């Protein structure tokens, strides 16, 4: 999965993509 800064607000779509 692609890691992004946890402090950054993510859209549900981004979170689903990152968490997969």
Automatic annotation (TrEMBL):
It comes from the Eukaryota. Residues 1-20 are annotated as: Disordered. It comes from Nymphaea colorata. This is Uncharacterized protein.
């Amino acid at each position: 999965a692609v890691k992004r800064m946890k402090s950054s607000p993510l859209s549900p779509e981004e979170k689903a993509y990152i968490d997969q």
